[in-house]
Amino acid sequence: MDAVAQRKTNREQKLRAKESHANKLAEKSKRKREHFQQVEEWANSVAKNRGGALQDDADEVFLKQRGPNKKREYADKKFGFGGKRGRFKQNDKASMNDLSGFNPRGNFPGGMKRSAKTKGGAGSARQGKRARDASRSRKRS
């Protein structure tokens, strides 16, 4: 009988613990709700004293009131406003039909490369190993 009584008291204690935990959670949520309500009332009273309701975009309004900083103003005055970027690369009628910079031979940094057959000059290069061997064998026979 002792084990049965022990199980019964354990079950009752577990039930009481669940109830007390639920009460604690309910009390906590009630306190939280009341706290946020007090904060909201305080914010409304401050807004009434200030002469207007709270603005959600108060930060944006504050930032719009200020202009560019002094450093930016000075740089714009000294060098001019930067303007849009990349406009200088766009074609117009005049630049499209202007062929003054066109070189029909090609715009190569060191001039056009000469073929290996033409001897001398900057374009002449040493032949490859197979070509040198072939020419050597041709000379022998």
Structure overview:
The chain is mainly α. Helix content is 60%, strand content 0%. It is built from 5 helices and no strands.
Quick overview of this protein structure:
By secondary structure, the protein is mainly alpha-helical. The protein has helices at 2-50, 58-65, 70-79, 93-97, 129-140.
Give the count of helical stretches.
5
Helix content: 55-70%
Shape: elongated
Strand content: under 5%
Q: Give unreliable regions as ranges.
A: none
SSE arrangement, N to C: HHHHH
Structural class: mainly alpha
Largest pleated sheet: none
Mean pLDDT: 82
Overall strand count = 0
The value of Rg in angstroms is 45 Å
Distance between the termini: 123 Å
Please give the structural blueprint.
Layout: H1 2-50, H2 58-65, H3 70-79, H4 93-97, H5 129-140
Q: Main attributes?
A:
single chain; 141 residues; mainly alpha; 5 helices; 0% strand; elongated
